[in-house]
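ZP: hey, is the 5,6-dihydroxy-NADP complex queued? I don't see it on the tracker
AM: it wasn't, my bad. submitting now with these inputs:
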Amino acid sequence: MFDFNYMVSTKVLFGRNKIQMLPEELKPYGKRILVVYGKRSIKKIGLYDLITTLLARNSLVYYELSGVQPNPRINSVRQGIKICREYHIDCIVAVGGGSVIDCAKTIAAGFYYESDPWDLFHLGDSAIKNALPIGTILTVTGSGSEMNGNAVISNMETEQKLAIHNDLLRPRFSILDPTYTFTVSTHQIAAGIVDIFSHVLEQYFSPTREAFVQNRIAESLLLTCIKYGPIALKEPTNYEAQAQLMWTSSLALNGLLGYGKITDWATHGIEHAVSAAYDVIHGVGLAILTPHWMNYVLNEETNYKFVEYGKNVWNIQEGNDYTVAKKGIEKTQRFFKNLGIPTTLREVGVTEKKLNDLAEKIVMHKEIGKFKKLGKKDVLMILKNAL
Ligand code: NZQ
Ligand code: ZN
């Protein structure tokens, strides 16, 4: 285990009706609030009315940025910064999933940045010197954004989807009420389950051999997805299933699994480029790519990790090491397929002639991945296999 500093500063308010604590949680930050949300879902479930009533009743003044799209665009961020400056916003409340939260985080950082916020994605994490406080109300499970300092934004003009990371972007509080997820479509629930699964795998498949506690926690999060994912799909109003998945999602990407070890993130790197070019749902892209990444990086040197995965996660106890590894990969692919997700890039609109461009963009001048380093040729092969 390597040395690390651990900080998870987000206050989590988990359970039914925790929304009632919203005004109290906002008190330390001021009276002028920007509420950021997506299209229709929060109005349909009555959450919009609930929030605005609570704010008004507590003399909090609110402004709105609505229409934030899945794979949130830099243009929404620009719009949000403008509102914050014009109306002297003190605090941002993001109501939605990863897209809305990431948009809110980038607005929070961009508010203090004098030039265009897209610069922040090229300048590196230290360019963020300050950020408005944000709180979140989660309505869809998967991204883990509710408890971390990451934000991922798309620029459709440059066909890029890039991330920033900074502790200043961690939400001050997050309200996690699983009942808000009861109306999420099965397609989106499935994508969220894969996103959680992938966040765990990106940290589990690591060249750091001494990470016993991190690996066992990771396996228990994967087992939770395998147990409760299909239940949530079948019965979206099953509170226990949605609650288990919601908390697993937050734990999967709040730092708990990654501290003290090296982590991979190659599959996310590849998927973000596919999403940027084809506007694919993040979890769908991951479900297609992950088994192909696994098959590609499996070799004599990496086999030990796949054996650990096959035995501890999929309970494959028979056969030689190679068979266990291969069966584990097959089970992973079947799990994603049974969630109703496409299995090829072609099905989500990707064409062969674009693959070379994509690989070039993904790798640029340096290799990606830490469990197994991948150059352009490797990434291109994974994309071709996934097509
Ligand atoms: O726009 P509305 O009408 O709200 O509909 C949304 C949206 O279409 C819908 N939805 C949300 N709550 C609902 C609901 N529908 C019915 N009932 C509800 N209660 O769900 C759709 C998808 O929302 P989105 O926020 O895009 O989903 P998710 O949470 O999966 O976020 C995906 C984004 O997060 C990024 C992804 O790249 C992607 O852009 N990620 C962020 C990370 C982070 N910040 O740490 C890490 C991840 O790896 C990921 O990259
Ligand atoms: Zn993800």
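AM: back. The mean pLDDT is 97.
ZP: great, adding it to the tracker
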